[in-house]
Amino acid sequence: STYGAEEHPNRKALERRFVESVTEVVENKGVALIPAFAVGRSQEVLMILVENRFKHKICMDGMAVEATRIMLEYPEYLRNAKELQRAFKKAEIIERWRQRKSIIKEPCAIIAPAGMLGGGAAVFYLTKLYDSEKNGIFIVGFQVPGTPGRMLLEERKAIIKGKVKKVKMRAEKYHFSSHIDKSGFRSLFSKIEGEPKFFVIHGNKENSNLLAKMLREDLGFDTYLPKLGEEFEIDRRSVVRRGRTSV
């Protein structure tokens, strides 16, 4: 139920705005840092830039590089293996400290984990780029409360070499979620036949409650909101709560 009560923005329009913003930073002689999850989001962002004809240098660093190589070894599991291969060939692969120190001296876009700025190559780049308004940082994934990425978005601050510093970079967030949204849930569930029983999990309290309400009141399904440690016994006709474990 992560986005069970929310609607995602129009994806194509969002991608265009993202590429336009990254382009603006690079064409203003800045470096555009894109912290991204190594598996999935980094590859997605790379493909978005290439497919939208981003004309400038794209660098990829950190665990995202090895993750991409592993994915491309198993193209049968990818929806767009050829497109990913083409995009990966256009990226400059960064694997040495000498390269990291060199690429930030000229305008480019850098895709690097960690996506929440909790470590990885992205942190190195942030420490070198945070103090200039011509640079930009573009957040492309959910930021858990308490993470450096969340602090940057909410306070425009970052921990640089052990000290809290004001981030002067242009900072923006783009909602590139892979989770289904409210309309997607309704479309999916409206096609289900029979009498399934739903257990709503993996979301904040508001989204879970609203998704459960839609399932129960709008679509007529038996729906449960399990609490941590609760046990259920399920058969084809009924669901019985069996109390809670000592989790």
Write structural notes for this entry.
The chain is an alpha/beta fold and 247 residues long. 38% of the residues lie in helices and 20% in strands. The longest helix is centred in the first third of the chain and has 17 residues. It is elongated. The two termini are 22 Å apart.
Task: Describe the structure concisely.
Helix content is 38%, strand content 20%.
**How far apart, in Å, are the first and last alpha carbons?**
22 Å
Overall pLDDT? 93
Total beta-strand segments? 12
Note the beta-strand portion.
Answer: 15-25%
Note the total helix count.
9
The helix/strand order is HEHEHHEHEHEHEEEHEHEEE
Globally, the shape reads: elongated
Adjacency order of strands in the biggest sheet:
3-2-4-1-5-8
Structural class: alpha/beta
Helix content: 25-40%
Q: Biggest sheet: strands, sense, closure? A: 6 strands, parallel
- Poorly predicted ranges: none
**Rg (C-alpha, Å):** 21 Å
Question: Topology, pairings included?
Answer:
Blueprint: H1 11-27, E1 31-35, H2 41-51, E2 58-61, H3 63-72, H4 81-90, E3 92-94, H5 97-103, E4 108-112, H6 121-129, E5 136-139, H7 148-155, E6 157-160, E7 163-166, E8 170-173, H8 182-189, E9 197-199, H9 205-218, E10 222-224, E11 230-234, E12 239-244
Parallel strand pairs: 1-4, 1-5, 2-3, 2-4, 5-8, 9-10
Antiparallel strand pairs: 6-7, 11-12
